[in-house]
Specification:
single chain; Phosphorylase Kinase, domain 1; seven-stranded antiparallel beta sheet; 13 strands; 236 residues; four-stranded antiparallel beta sheet; alpha+beta
Length: 236
Amino acid sequence: MRLSEQVNERLWDSLLSEILKENRRAELAELEAFDASDGILHEFSSEFEKNVRRIRRKFAVKSSLEKVPAAVYKSVATAAAILGIAFAALLTQPKVYAAVGDVIRNVFSDHDSYSYRGEAPKEAFKDNIRPGYMPDGYELYSVIYGGSMATLTYKNEDEEIAIFKYGIAALSSVSIDNERHECKEVERNGKTYFIYEAEETGDRSSVIWYSGEYIYDITAQFDRDELVKIAESVRE
């Protein structure tokens, strides 16, 4: 019987987590000795190195995994190949997370996408939703309505921009870069906020969340705490 995609993903999660917890430097040394004795050399391409770092960020959720050396992750990949496990498939196939209610988060190699599988709201689109808080100096500059989506742009005197968007979840989807951003989930007052913090100075960070049948998105050069403060202030 073929396993569903969700079950298959959970099996991969469990497999990798257990391997990472049990692998130690001694195993890596033993693996290298085995390779040398057979004349087998494992060279990792720059793309593979990039994938290893990405996988490490995604799986190093618990403190025990955060302390695992990068070299051990390589040994896991090599061991998986020796055992005949299709590790390459893991690097390319999307990973699916159940997020909030009817929200599905798909994690790909270069972006995360969010989709809503629930029903559309029975009431008309709300066009008066606003953040109750914005950092000092930011004033509302423009409001654009696009049927089931609204985009509000805030500016300060230095022409720095903060964008607040919201719309009917059932009629929209969101795609966010995960190569230059690190995703963190924050739980506040029964809501889950997905925060994408920019890894490079000058890039914008984002926070998205679902409330009822609406999806919300704030993008600006703010830190995590400021983004969450704005998100929590939104008046629905």
